[in-house]
Amino acid sequence: MKALDGIKIIDFTHVQAGPACTQLLAWFGADVIKVERPGSGDVTRNQLRDIPDADALYFTQLNSNKRSLTLDTKTKEGKEVLEKLIKVSDVMVENFGPGALDRMGFPWKRILELNPKMIMASVKGFSEGHHYEDLKVYENVAQCAGGAASTTGFWDGPPTVSGAALGDSNTGMHLAIGILTALRMRDKTGKGQKVAVSMQDACLNLCRVKLRDQLRLDRLGYLEEYPQYPHGKFTDVVPRGGNAGGGGQPGWVLKCKGWETDPNAYIYFTIQGHAWEPICDAIGKPEWKTDPAYTTAKARQPHIFDIFKTIEEFIKDKTKYEAVDIFRKFDIPCAPVLSMKEIANDPSLRKSGTIAEVDHKVRGKYLTVGSPIKFSDMTVEITGSPLLGEHTDEVLAELGYTPQQIAAMHETKAV
Ligand code: COA
């Protein structure tokens, strides 16, 4: 049994933000029907292909556990099918450019007429009524507008975007929470509703500590946990802090053995206040435990980079794994910097299902990121992504179309 068994979702999403949301709901048991344009489908099926005739990994990684229905919703027959589908579904998710659904003839008012219990969930770049609401948006645009880029990177470099999909998949995760909340509310009221998340807002939600820093900077004129303190200068905006730990626990990326040739031969090391004495023991500096220049976080901060240098000196002949194995014994929060190759082959991630190997009808086995959410009473199984239109006839039959009617729709290219 899966938590979302019996929930039918019209997945009108493409690229990453929307598909990440519906994929999550499909993992948890929802029947997710991905509606795609006949002939082409989601643009990611073709983007960055590594095997000429197989759906690209971009698509397969974001569309597992779904069914695919091809439907030209700009034709009369296509609109009819969509109407039938709306009547029997619980949720419709879309992340088209602004106004696309209205132009297609399915504004919220119409959807509600067709199904008053429908939960209509949307991702847009900016929220409704925002002065940029007309803009189309991709990942990095959202990171720039959501506060991530201006606060990421080094102070002497340009604004930098993160490799993590803060604008796309993160927005999809926010939307999934909104959908589940609306479903819970529908259980109580019997009514559907519109749920919307903008990529800018979802990004900002993850940057709230940077807004905290802005307010502190406004009041104090400095931020003591940033590398700029106390020797550098602060302006009136939150600076980029490089790899500094953000929450009052100083931290930095430190070089390990082999860093000259291996771009990831580093660990992240955190100086947690109450772990100071174990750190001194771990790095062979017991005298720092009683030296007033080191005993408090405030005393350490002016020479924090000298402290990091001393730790680097201690680990320069140790691999990142050896270094972490030493520090973990002293309860020091740290981890190796892992490459994607190392992550793909990590036995623990494989064992937990966070890295999963699944079958695909054309490309064979492929790796994907499985559910990061684990349940004690539900197993999440990841299945391969659907081929374009693989389930068209099946879904149409479920909607009551006869084989003749289905054949006619293929003939006119409505599906
Ligand atoms: N049948 C017929 N037409 C279809 C269709 C179908 N099954 N599915 C989509 N379409 C049409 C839409 O009706 C729309 O047509 P219109 O513009 O003539 O009204 C068009 O295809 C899709 O337009 P749009 O979503 O704007 O695509 P795009 O490639 O120009 O823009 C994005 C892509 C991602 C920039 C844009 O969709 C967007 O800003 N989305 C919101 C934010 C977002 O999710 N960003 C991406 C995160 S990964």
Question: What key phrases describe this protein's structure?
Answer:
415 residues, alpha/beta, 6-stranded parallel sheet, 3-stranded antiparallel sheet, binds coenzyme A
The backbone outline, from C-alpha atoms, is elongated
Which structural class matches the secondary elements? Answer: alpha/beta
Strand and helix order? EHEHEHEHHEHHEHHEEHHHHEHHEEHH
Euclidean distance between termini CA atoms: 32 Å
Number of helices: 17
Largest sheet: 6 strands, parallel
Q: In angstroms, what is the radius of gyration?
A: 26 Å
Q: Give the DSSP E fraction (strand runs of 2 or more residues).
A: 5-15%
Mean pLDDT: 97
Percentage of residues in helical conformation = 25-40%
Q: What's the β-strand tally?
A: 11
Unique ligands: coenzyme A
Give the uncertain stretches in residue-range form.
none
Q: What's the arrangement of strands in the largest beta sheet?
A: 3-2-1-4-5-6
Description:
- With 415 residues, the chain is of the alpha/beta class.
- It contains 17 helices and eleven strands.
- It has a six-stranded parallel β-sheet, with helices on both faces.
- It has helices at residues 17-27, 57-60, 76-88, 100-104, 108-114, 139-145, 169-189, 199-206, 208-220, 276-282, 297-300, 304-315, 320-328, 340-344, 347-352, 392-398, 403-411; strands spanning 8-12, 31-36, 67-70, 91-94, 119-124, 193-198, 251-255, 266-270, 334-336, 355-360, 364-369.
- Helix 2 (57-60) links the parallel strand 2 (31-36) and strand 3.
- It binds coenzyme A.
Topology:
Elements: E1 8-12, H1 17-27, E2 31-36, H2 57-60, E3 67-70, H3 76-88, E4 91-94, H4 100-104, H5 108-114, E5 119-124, H6 139-145, H7 169-189, E6 193-198, H8 199-206, H9 208-220, E7 251-255, E8 266-270, H10 276-282, H11 297-300, H12 304-315, H13 320-328, E9 334-336, H14 340-344, H15 347-352, E10 355-360, E11 364-369, H16 392-398, H17 403-411
Helix pairs in contact: 1-7, 6-8
The structure holds coenzyme A (COA).
Coenzyme A binds next to helix 1, strand 2, helix 4 and strand 5.
